[in-house]
Every structure is written in C-alpha cells, then in structure tokens.
C-alpha cells in the first residue's frame, strides 16, 4: 500500500510537470490572431499596398466601370505623409524613394489623358517612377479637356514621388477655331474614313494634335516650368535611368530630344510643307543657320521627305516653345487650317519646327532611354549598356535601324558615328 502511494505521488508530480511545460510553451507561441496582427503592423510600415488591381473599361460617361473604392486605396503611414500634392486627396500615399544627390531642374512630366485612361496611365507612371523618378522626384502635370474625377486623382497621385497637378483645358484651345469651314472639314473626315486613313474621321484626335502642337505649354500649370517630359498611357521603359535627362539637356544646351523617328503618313499632311515654305519665306529670321534641313528634306527644302521625331516621347525646353519663333510658326500653320482640313499631327509639326529653328546640336537622340509605345520599340544599341542598365528589351525589336526609321538619317545629318553593334542589330 505504501508502494502504491509512492507511485501515485510520482504520477501526480509528472502530470504537474507536463502541465507546467505545456503552459510555458503555449505562452511563448503566437496565436493565429497574433500572427495576423504582426503581419499587418509590418505591412503598415512598408509603403503603399494595392488590394484591387483588376482592369477597368471606359463607361459611357468617360469614367471607368472598375473605379477603386476608398477602402481599396493605399493609405498613408507615419513614414510617408502627403507633403507633395497641391490638391491633396484623403488617403494619398507616395512611393518610397532614395533621392539622388544634386540639383533639380525646373521640370515636370506632362500627360494629356482622360479619366478612362486611369489604368493605362498608371502603368506608365510606374514605369517612369521605377526606372527613374523615384530617385529624382519630379512633378507631374495631368491635362484633360474635362474635369479629372477623384479616382483618377487618387490613383495617379498615389503612384508619383513628386507633386501632382490636375488641369482642365479651355474650350478655346480644344475646339474648332472660328475661321474653320465646318462643312469642308466634315467632308475631309468623311473622305479619310472612306480611304481608311488612321484617325482620319476623328474630331477629338484633331483637337489633340492641335493642342499638343500649339497650346499645352501655355497652360497655366505648365507656366511654372522650364522643362517637360511627355508621357502617354501604356508606354514602357526598359532600362534604368541613373542620371537626370533634364539636367543633361540644360548642361549641354539641348532644347529638344527624341528616342524614335519615322516617316509620316503622306495622306495626312499633303500640304503641310507648303505652309512651312510660306513660313520660311515670311520669317527668314527664325530659321537657324546650322539647322537640320538635311534631316527633313532630300532636295534642300523643296519637298518634305516626311521624316519626323515621334512626339509621344519628347523631353524639351518650354521657353523655346513659348518663344516668338515657334509661336509665329504655329500661328501660320493654324491659320492655314491643316489640322482640320487634313490631319496634321503634332509630331511632324514639332519636328519641322525643331529641324528648322534649332541648331543641329540643340537636338538630342537619347539612345540610352529604352522605350516602347505601340507599335514601336527603341532598345538601346550595345549589349554591354543593356546589361549594365538592367534592360529587359529584346534588341531584335529595336526599330532604329529599320528601313522605315529616320534615326540613321539623324546620325548622318549630324555627322555622328553610328553606335557600335548597330550593323548586327539591323
């Protein structure tokens, strides 16, 4: 009996010890709710977090059928307060960045977009921010012929590292000027539609081309800046940009730049060069002595060879565009009515102006800025550069040395040596 009691005491002690061990181990192991709380706190300090990145489609009102709810938008943490937007929206946030040293130019990105473009321009913003602007924090100006809605403002301002500004375009700059014959313009659109000319029957496309040709740099929001970088929806940047292209332009006295060049559709500009020749005769004082006529014409200016810089990407000087020479040039073209009686694009307008009124060495080709806008790709020529700058473009897609490109002509006009490796990549 005494032996049984001794065994019983041993059993009780063992059970008690196991219970103590169990309780201690349980208190040191986080519960499921504790794990969830820890993860949430960790995420709160990690910058912006997107919860609903599904696609959206334009609705009839010009908005989107997939508008993000306030609860789905990224919120500020204590580390990333909204200290940039001049029109702060509740719930805004910024991408974390490590600013690059050095001075900043008085510069901005500029985008012409509608509310329904919100997801396509968001893709472009991420491309620009991830490859460049997270280190430099330049502003962004968005322009629209209507008021921007809250969704557009919230989504885009959350993605930028610099200040965001949203402006509406006035009707006097987005419409038919009083001297345009509406019946004549309508017949032109109908004819171009029958001939299947791209955007040939579009009124809004014509307003856009005229606005980009003569007015975007006059908007009140743009008057605060000296330099601009044009960005359109759904573009892609393939390589890191570790220096400041704005500062490069300023330091090297450049006023206009490009990454892609090609021939314009002749059906859209049949009389454009006639207007240009009239301008050159009327304003010889605006034509630079060391200009790029060789890039624009094969016969000394008698005819236009249709070469132009693709203006959906351009970095340029706003003071040049606001100057008397360019103003006289645009006013001449505008009065001739070719934006509506034909379908003059802003690309040949900018290109001809730069080619005639700037010195050759004031125009720059950014071989190192890898870029895509449907359907063309600029992939930098030179394998080592692509490796060093973490490029993800396929050199086989590079348009530069394609027969329809004018980039080789630009090199020849400026007496520049073609980049190493171009022959292999043709």
From TrEMBL:
The keyword Zinc-finger does not apply. The chain crosses the membrane at residues 7-25. Gene3D superfamilies: Spore Coat Polysaccharide Biosynthesis Protein SpsA, Chain A. One of its GO terms (cellular component) is Golgi apparatus. Pfam families: Glyco_transf_15. Keywords: Glycosyltransferase, Membrane, Transferase, Transmembrane, Transmembrane helix. One of its GO terms (molecular function) is alpha-1,2-mannosyltransferase activity. Residues 67-81 have a biased composition (Basic and acidic residues). InterPro entries: Glyco_trans_15, Nucleotide-diphossugar_trans. GO terms for biological process: cell wall mannoprotein biosynthetic process; protein N-linked glycosylation; protein O-linked glycosylation. Residues 49-102 are annotated as: Disordered. SUPFAM superfamilies: Nucleotide-diphospho-sugar transferases. Belongs to the glycosyltransferase 15 family. PANTHER family: ALPHA-1,2 MANNOSYLTRANSFERASE KTR1 (PTHR31121). This is Alpha-1,2 mannosyltransferase KTR1.
